[in-house]
Amino acid sequence: MKLSEIYAFLNELSPFEKQASWDNSGLLLGNLDDDISKLYLSLDVDENLIKNAEENSLFITHHPLIFKPLRNLSEMAYPKNLLKEMIKKNIALISLHTNYDLSHLNAYFVKEILGFEKFLQEDFLIYVDVNLSFYELCERVKKRLNLTNLKMSFSGKEKLEKIAICTGSGGDLIPNVKADCFLSGDFKYHQAFEALSNHLSLIELGHYESERYFNESLAKYLQNLPLKVIMSVSKNPFQYF
């Protein structure tokens, strides 16, 4: 299958034009005329993924390996070191980031992982009407995500009627949130104060923890393509002591 055909399929599934203005989703490495017989799904590109991948294959990742413009490839610092190894093996790279959050991943996370069947999506935010206490919601999240600990910021409002959810880093959306509690992958320190000043509780899911379902959410759409699809499990760069 031509790389151009795969790109067109993904663009129809989750249009790249819908990505956030700061994002860099799309074809990041490769020639559209290349023939692809094997693709790897992964949250991120890492050394193990490249090492174990066959030559002339395709990586489809959630996080773009290239965010900022690269002036050269002469250094061995991240991400240049990974790009060099991919070029040696003629590995192409397509990233589906915020466009896929918008079209699929946020809704998949809310329904399939957190188990909320009814919800309303407004751009990158998903709203769910609930009848839970704040700590009941915390327990639900811990159980569904198999977490030992949960980082949160409690506004003092115990009874929750509406919650908002966004996978990844949703802190910049706090001014737009119209809910009692906001769940997202990670928040900055000052964003917690901003939320509390607006009587908004926060639950930090973990960036990796909220997006590690990228592979399984996308794989079902690729199963009818004439390609061998391999799902690679990315490693969380953070550990807990």
From TrEMBL:
<comment type="subunit">
    <text>Homohexamer.</text>
</comment>
<feature type="binding site">
    <location>
        <position position="101"/>
    </location>
    <ligand>
        <name>a divalent metal cation</name>
    </ligand>
</feature>
<dbReference type="InterPro" id="IPR036069">
    <property type="entry name" value="DUF34/NIF3_sf"/>
</dbReference>
<feature type="binding site">
    <location>
        <position position="63"/>
    </location>
    <ligand>
        <name>a divalent metal cation</name>
    </ligand>
</feature>
<feature type="binding site">
    <location>
        <position position="207"/>
    </location>
    <ligand>
        <name>a divalent metal cation</name>
    </ligand>
</feature>
<comment type="similarity">
    <text>Belongs to the GTP cyclohydrolase I type 2/NIF3 family.</text>
</comment>
<dbReference type="InterPro" id="IPR002678">
    <property type="entry name" value="DUF34/NIF3"/>
</dbReference>
<feature type="binding site">
    <location>
        <position position="62"/>
    </location>
    <ligand>
        <name>a divalent metal cation</name>
    </ligand>
</feature>
<protein>
    <recommendedName>
        <fullName>GTP cyclohydrolase 1 type 2 homolog</fullName>
    </recommendedName>
</protein>
<dbReference type="GO" id="GO:0005737">
    <property type="term" value="C:cytoplasm"/>
</dbReference>
<feature type="binding site">
    <location>
        <position position="211"/>
    </location>
    <ligand>
        <name>a divalent metal cation</name>
    </ligand>
</feature>
<keyword id="KW-0479">Metal-binding</keyword>
<dbReference type="GO" id="GO:0046872">
    <property type="term" value="F:metal ion binding"/>
</dbReference>
<dbReference type="Pfam" id="PF01784">
    <property type="entry name" value="DUF34_NIF3"/>
</dbReference>
